[in-house]
Each structure stands twice: as C-alpha cells, then as structure tokens.
Amino acid sequence: MDYAIIGNCTSAALVGPDASIDWLCLPFFDSPSLFGRILDVDRGGFFRISAENVLKVTQNYAHHTPIVKTRFETKDGIFDVFDYMPRFITSGGEVHCPSEIHRNIHVIAGRPRIKVDFKPCPNYGLAEGHLKFLPDYLKITSREGEYNSYYLYSNLDLEAVARGEAIELKASSFFLLSYHEKLSRVSQEKIYLEYEKTKSYWMDWVFRTRVPEKYKEVVIRSVITLKLLMFQRTGAVIAAPTTSLPEIIGGDRNWDYRFCWVRDASMIIDLYARMGHVHSAERFIQFILGRMLVKNENIAVMYGINGERVMDERTLKHLAGYQGSKPVRIGNAAYQQKQNDVYGELIEALYSYFITNPNHQKDFDEELWTVVRSLANKVALTWREPDCGIWERRGPPRHFVHSKLMNWVAMDRAAKISRFVGKERHVPMYLAVAEEIKQDILTHGWNPELNSFAMHYESKDLDASNLMMLHYGFLPSTDHRIMGTVEAALKHLVRNGFVMRYTADDELGTPKNAFIVCTFWLINAMHLTGRKEEARAMFDQMISRVNRVGLLSEDIEPETGHLTGNFPQGYSHLALIQTAFLLETNYQWNNGAQFLPPEDGRVHKKELFL
Description:
Mean pLDDT is 91; it is low at 588-610. Helix 5 packs parallel to helix 7 (342-356). This protein is an alpha+beta fold. The chain has two domains: 4-207, Beta-galactosidase, Chain A, domain 5 (Distorted Sandwich), CATH 2.70.98; 216-594, Glycosyltransferase, CATH 1.50.10.10. Helices cover 33% and strands 19% of the residues. The strands form nine sheets. It has an eight-stranded antiparallel β-sheet with strand order 6-7-8-11-17-15-14-13, covered by helices on one side. Strands 1, 2, 3, 4, 5, 12 and 16 form a seven-stranded antiparallel β-sheet that branches.
C-alpha cells in the first residue's frame, strides 16, 4: 500500500508516489468518491501531475506535517508539487479546514513541462464528470447518481489542462479543488499564505505532543495520522478513510471503515488524553454525550461521522475492486451487531480523561458521571449475554473472552471513577460485579489443554485479543495463565514474525493475513513478561514494514510483508505508539493507571503522558 495520506479532519485523500490522487471523497470522509482509482483503475478516476522527460521522482512528507512533497527532476528543469488540505486557526480563533485540496507547484530550476491527467468520476465512478469551463474555474458535475459539483481553480490554462497538453512552467503555479465555489478571488499569494499557515499549524501541534525519543519520527507520523482521522465537525474518529481495501487480496473481506467505532475511537482518545491532547479527547466525549441523550439509551457499536445509527451496507457492482478484490462495499452492517466490549473501552477512555484533566468544568463532570453510571448499569445487566466480539464475527453470538474482559474493565474503571469523583457508595457494587465477571472468565475462559485463555467459552481456539489482559491489568504478568497465553500465542499465532488475530475458520473462510494491531499486542505482552529482547526485535521488524512514508494498513501478508486492508488504519497506528512508549520508557499497564516517567525520572500518579 504505497500511498501517502493528506487531510484536514474534514476529509482525506491518498496520493501515490507518482503524484496521483487516487482516492478522494468530498465534502466529507463518508461522501461518494470523486477520485477512486484505488478501487477501479479504469472507472474510478484520478488527478495526476507528471512531466515530460522525467529523470527522477522522489516523495516525502514536509517535516512533521501531513503535507506531501513530490519532486520531479526532468531534462528541462526541476519542480516540486506540495499536496495538502488546509488546516489552521483563523484570526477569530476558529479552525479553518475546508472541503478542498491544494496542489502547489514550485519551480526549482529551469522551465520544466508538466502534464496533468484530470479524470474526475463522481459518485464512486458511476460515470466521468461533466466539465464546464467558466471564466474563473472549471466546474465538474456528476452525470449519473446523486447530484454533486466540484470546482477546480488554477493560474494555469484549465482547458489545456483538461486536454492533457504539456504546459511549460515559467513560474510557480497551483491547483485548488473545492467542493464549494469560492467567494473570494483565488490567487497565488493566497494559496502560498494558506500553505504556510497549514505548515505552521501542524509543526506547532507536533511540538506540543510528547513522544519517545528513540522512535520519535515513526511515532510522530502515527500521531499525525490519528489526528487526520478525527472529524472536526462532531469529534467522531473514523477507523480509516477508505472502503473495501481487502484484508486478503482477491478475497471478499472488504469493508467500509469510514465510520466511528466506539472501540477504536475510545482507545485512540484514551491515548491522546495521556499524551496531552485533552481537547481532542473532550471533542470525542462530547460526540458520545450527544448520542446518549437519555439515561436508558444504549451506546451503539459504531456511528456515522455525524452520529448516524444506521449505516446500511450495499455493494457497488460496477467497480472492479482493489486488484480485482470484490465486492466493493459502502456502509457497514456491523452497526446491527451486539459487541459487549465497547462498554469497557469507552469507560476506560472516560477514566483517562478524568485522571488526566482534573480541572474540567463541574457541569461537564456531572454529565460524564451520568454516562459512567448508565454504562456501568448496562454492563451489570448484560455481561452474561453472548455477543459478536471484537472481530465482529457474523456467525452466532458467543461468550467471547475478550468481551467478558472488557466488561470487567468497565466495572473496575467505574469503581475507580466513583472514588475519583467522591461517590464512594457506588464502589462496592461495581467491584462486586467486576469480581463476579473475573471469576467467570477464570472458570470458563481458561482452557487447560491449550494452557491459554481461549477465544470463547468452550472453545479450543486461540485469540490474540486475550493478550490485552496485561494491558488492562486483569492479571499480573507473573501469573501462570498470562505466561501460558503469551507462550501459546507465540507458538500458534505467529507467522514469520507477524501475529494472526486467530487461525480458526470463520464465516468467510480461513484467515490468511496477520493483523498488525495483534503483533503490537504480543510485543507488549512479551516485554511485560520479561522477554524484552525478543519483543524489541519483533517491534523493529514490524516498524520496518511501514510504507515509504511511515504509514500502516490494517493487515499484513506474512510471507511478503505487503500491507493489506483499509489504509491508513487508526488502530494500527494507535498500537504502534503504545508499544513505542512501552519499549522506550517502560511505562506499565496496572489496573488502568499507565505511568510514564517524567524527565526527572520520578513517577507521579497524575502526570500520565502530560
């Protein structure tokens, strides 16, 4: 998966090493694609800038930003293309992140001749867009499906651009592609100013982020990538900006990830709260508060980016799929599932917010406390019920061990929050339920034949998600059941240094590719159980598989190391950051309190990544 991502928390695009935008949805993450060549080479559409007489093309991110720089060295001259989506703070203190892409072209030397392939295909490639040339811009409208329009601005001859003619660059130029018609004149000066503001915004944002020194650059790229997945308008956090990039090339495990899974988002926000970006945590919490309008309303497994509860799944039969991998799906039927683990992840995120932000407003605290109690009450009533689990199995519900674990986390953290806010009377009940869940897991989830916790009760299959018991402090690292689970994962789930989530057949056949997040989970477990050299070696191998610009997808082919699945994947980058901190600073997970030694070497309970 050899793409770079650009974005501004409104939408995102994938830019290939040839400076071709092969995926873009406007105005928002979940909108129909305008360029979708990644899903169909012939019908998807793309926007590529190239040149005549090319000698060399190189590409990288501008330092500590999501701005992609592609340099073309040609016989006629040298020029750079800077691709980005504007994001900066206005003079009025508002975040400016419009639904548009800027492509700045800066001449370095000579008079290079560029060529532009502009092939917009709105509505997921139903048809090529209709082009209408107006005095100030080129208007693109859809020919089939729902009506959409887009506007292309440039200081180059747009008719020549549309015809694919070579254009001599005499000075720096630009393209601005917007979902909205611009009200003010678009000029080279304005474009340059917004570029500088965007670059400054990101460099300042990164400067305020605490990262480990040894793995600094790969962590910074991961932190930026996670930020790009946070929808500015609502605070929702999407799993990935793409749909139907297959887990297995040629297979049918192809899903739409442009939605907010409470599980993934909660874990990302938990990390952000601990790294000092409390505002991002607050926005997601406000998003969740907006979904739980009354005390008896249940939290959903996932939401649309604007809080939608229904995401009907359908197939786009006219698209060939990534490297022929069909079907191409939009929407995701997982919203109908019951996944009991989400309560634990959400309450854990709220717990992190409480302990890392002791100065939050009183009214906000009271609303959060109501949410915590409502969720804990729900867990107390439902934890005995089967569900579809963290891997969203589409078969019959089971008593998945990981789901039970997260129910334990929910009650354990609810008790801790109760103490934190001075509501001690709730603590005994929450701890009693937590202990009941724990004993149930130890009785029914442990399989002596496997010498490991199993995937679900009465199962003889392993599940990498059980490695998270260490993360949440369910049992100490010296417990023989933890040691056995780690050893079993090493023996049965590892393929060429990468970790399968499970190896048992499921409703779609036999899994073939490793899950990147599971590899990081095993690395963490190995480190915490004393296998530190092995853990670091596996981590070094895993991060050597990030693509050329430091990005990860959801899955990896064990034999080739090729990245597969939706891209870039927030869960994978989250896990990379957690593991980098663990290996560098040796912070430990201990019943929900994750400690990071401050610069003076002492551990302070409430510093926690601040």
